[in-house]
Design a protein that fits this description.
- The complex is a heterodimer of chains A (about 110) and B (about 110).
- By secondary structure, chain A is mostly beta strands.
- Chain A is built from no helices and twelve strands.
- In chain A, a hairpin with a 7-residue loop joins β10 and β11.
- Chain A is globular.
- Chain A starts with a strand and ends with a strand.
- With about 110 residues, chain B is an all-beta fold.
- Helices cover about 0% and strands about 55% of the residues of chain B.
- Chain B has no helices and eleven strands.
- In chain B, β5 and β6 form a beta hairpin.
- Chain B starts with a strand and ends with a strand.
- In chain B, about 35% of the residues are buried.
- Classes of the chains: A mainly beta (about 110), B mainly beta (about 110).
Chain lengths: ~110, ~110
């Protein structure tokens, strides 16, 4: 069965500092990987996704993520965090043969001045 | 235009009541979902419909009944509401079923059961 682990429940980053949110997945075949962001009081919005090809994927709002098969990881990064990035971030895994996405438990990002 | 819309946005009701949440998507997608997000932000899939056919029915009490009159709509009816049903309910859609596609989420319905 597929599973996703986001080991950090919350992270605080200073505005302008770099960010890395961790995501580890468990799946036997090549996974389809997603990062979503949920701003307060909002629904989830897709930041980026990885299906195949280049393991470094670019997303919206200046985010990127790198797929590392050897580490079963798909960590999300941003070089310089803005106060508006404060939100809940979810990693998800899926595959063509599976009927649903499996979401991690989320990481809350706090941005300090 | 809103891609995935839900009504109402907030729902406050008493225990034992019956309530419905409506969802509509104008993206032309074949698949729609209902998720429940608890107070710890944990997101759990409840149901999935593909072109009006139920394809996922997770372990959800029988008090929850989804209905899809057409592939653009997926409503959720809840009977005999309980305190534990308090949560944010999200509707989502995707071009086709399965875990290979991006899902587009609605803004959520915050249900509070008193």
């Amino acid at each position: 069965a597929q599973s996703v682990t986001q080991p950090d429940i919350h992270i605080t980053v200073s505005e302008g500092a770099s960010l890395e949110l961790r995501c580890n997945y468990s799946y036997g075949a090549t996974p389809y990987l997603f990062w979503y962001v949920q701003s307060p009081g909002q629904g989830l919005q897709l930041l980026l996704k990885y299906f195949s090809g280049d393991t470094l994927v670019q997303g919206i709002k200046g985010f990127e993520a790198e797929f590392k098969r050897s580490q079963s990881s798909f960590n999300l990064r941003k070089p310089s965090v803005h106060w508006s990035d404060a939100a809940e971030y979810f990693c998800a895994v899926g595959s063509p043969g599976f009927q649903k996405l499996v979401f991690g438990t989320g990481t809350r990002l706090l941005v300090s001045p | 235009d809103t891609a995935v819309s839900q009504t109402p946005k907030y729902l406050v009701t008493q225990m034992g009541n019956d309530k419905s949440i409506k969802c509509e998507q104008n993206l032309g997608h074949d698949t729609m979902y209902w998720y429940k997000q608890d107070s710890k932000k944990f997101l759990k899939i409840m149901f999935s419909y593909n072109n009006k056919e139920l394809i996922i029915n997770e372990t959800v009490p029988n008090r929850f009944s989804p209905k899809s009159p057409d592939k653009a709509h997926l409503n959720l009816h809840i009977n005999s509401l309980e305190l534990g049903d308090s949560a944010v309910y999200f509707c989502a859609s995707s071009p086709s079923g399965g875990g290979a596609n991006e899902q587009f989420f609605g803004p959520g319905t915050r249900l509070t059961v008193l």
